[in-house]
Design goal:
Elements: H1 3-16, H2 28-34, H3 47-76, E1 81-85, H4 92-95, E2 103-108, H5 110-123, E3 130-135, H6 142-148, E4 158-161, H7 170-182, E5 189-193, H8 199-204, H9 224-229, E6 233-238, H10 240-246, E7 264-269
Parallel strand pairs: 1-2, 1-4, 2-3, 4-5
Antiparallel strand pairs: 5-7, 6-7
Helix pairs in contact: 1-2
Length: 270
């Protein structure tokens, strides 16, 4: 599954080329090139496939900007502990400005972390905070592995699960906020991206084997705000369309279906 993280890096590398880029990710092209996705392939001839690729790419750009902003807000509020769950090719430890004393944990399986480490060595990348990698499967005892790596549950943490939950089975999705809450002090933050209702049917039903969409298994709860409230979090949901418009990247097409609760979630632990 980690190859999909290289695909995300490819999208971020393309964003770098825009004059009005919503973020800059200097390492993205190196990740994409090492994974065989750069130079980028031409768009598919099939119009439906092309539209789907554009929609997925736009969603990655918007969610990246959304979570960047959330992390900056958390840092400004005094949070100095960051946990990226399913970190993949995330380069925020290297591309964002972090306050002194920030510790950033990247949690993922060994394969993507090893691949990432080889690219970082090649690029001679230097983290702008204390960066700690934690090699563990998120379906296993990742809280134990995180504790062993030095995470302090008594200190507020900002948790990020970007493009992750849609790949986890429902039981793992249900367990995640309970585990996070058990490790969260008051004032901690959380940023989640959730697969909107019906997205698997629209994108995954006829997805090519091995593609990212073919591995999607979980959609968002009917009411994600209420779902997180049950675990002690005060959450706010935003739709991709709403955030895209706010960032000056409005969707070029009207909604194809009734839009439900937002799949971009920010939350504060009480």
């Amino acid at each position: 599954m980690w190859a999909t993280a290289v695909g995300v890096a490819r999208v971020r590398a393309l964003e770098n080329e825009r004059k009005n880029a919503l973020f800059r990710d200097p390492l993205a092209q190196a990740f994409a090139a090492a994974g065989g996705l750069w130079p980028c392939s031409p768009p598919p001839d099939d119009e439906t496939a092309r539209r789907r690729r554009l929609a997925v790419s736009l969603s990655i750009v918007i969610r990246t900007k959304f979570l960047d902003d959330l992390l900056r807000q958390a840092s400004a509020s005094g949070v100095r502990q960051v946990v990226l769950l399913g970190a993949g090719m995330d380069s925020r430890a290297f591309r964002m400005d972090w306050p002194e004393g920030t510790r950033l944990f990247e949690v993922d399986t060994a394969a993507p972390l090893d691949f990432k480490a080889s690219v970082l060595r090649q690029e001679r990348a230097v983290a702008r905070c204390e960066r700690i990698t934690v090699a563990v499967d998120l379906r296993e005892d990742w809280p134990g592995a995180l504790a062993a790596a030095g995470h302090d549950p008594a200190s507020p943490t900002v948790w990020i699960a970007e493009g992750l939950l849609i790949y986890l089975p429902e039981d793992a999705v249900e367990l995640l906020p309970a585990r996070i809450s058990a490790l969260s002090a008051a004032g901690g933050r959380m940023g989640l991206t959730l697969g909107s209702r019906g997205v698997i049917e629209r994108f995954g039903a006829d997805a090519e084997p091995g593609s990212a969409a073919s591995m999607w298994v979980s959609e968002m709860p009917d009411d994600p705000v209420d779902w997180l409230a049950g675990h002690g979090w005060e959450a706010t949901g935003h739709t991709l369309r709403e955030r895209a418009a706010a960032y000056g990247r409005p969707f070029g097409t009207p909604p194809q279906h009734e839009e439900g609760p937002g799949g971009l979630i920010s939350a504060v632990h009480r």
